[in-house]
Write a structure and sequence with these properties.
Radius of gyration: 26 Å
Number of domains: 2
Largest sheet: 5 strands, mixed
Shape: elongated
Structural class: alpha/beta
Strand order of the largest sheet: 3-2-1-4-5
Amino acid sequence: MKIATLGIDLAKRVFQIHGLDERGKIVLRKRLSRNKLLNFFNTLSPCLVGMESCGGAHYWARKIRDLGHDVKLISPQFVKPFVKSNKNDYNDAEAICEAIVRPSMRFVSIKSVEHQDIQALHRVRERLIKERTALVNQIRGLLSEYGIILPIGIQNVRKSLPLILDNTENELTPISRELFAELFTELRSIEEKIAKCHRHIERVFLNNPVCHKLAEVEGVGTLTATALIAAIMILFFY
């Protein structure tokens, strides 16, 4: 059995595989558990392998490519037109298998581990900033119930809250004073984590010549340059 093309529907534990020979005839329909996938590909002769670009796809693409196969990642939106009937693992694997052999198909470049590091840093930073914003809004909202109004802005909360906690003449009770002290500690903790992410991103910037080139463009700084580097493997198709 000579397999020329394989489509894989990725999952957390069990993967569906659909294989075609050189004439496009179905020669393989198989379900494999996660821990058996690489062993399976290690026994195959080099072939064209397709997967949707989704969570975990870049990891599997690197691993399967290292075993000598030609791996292509496709955006899910380009696979959908090839699904012939109800969406399920088998039909998705078959659709991927058909999509990757289309001459006009566009593919997503496989990210390196370094690219994924940068993207992870930006995603964590973004999540922390959202948490900080939500926490600051909650602090301001709760303080207003005690007749204490703070202007909009993280810096105003950071500067004013310690003074409010030290002020024994406002309407804060011992319970609320302790609560706001804990919220302020939480805010400082989040900001320390954001600062740590920034330091990691700055190191990436300093060690990446491409980032230096991007930073030559007016308005592009450390964050923008590293974010572009992280996204570039998604934006460019071949």
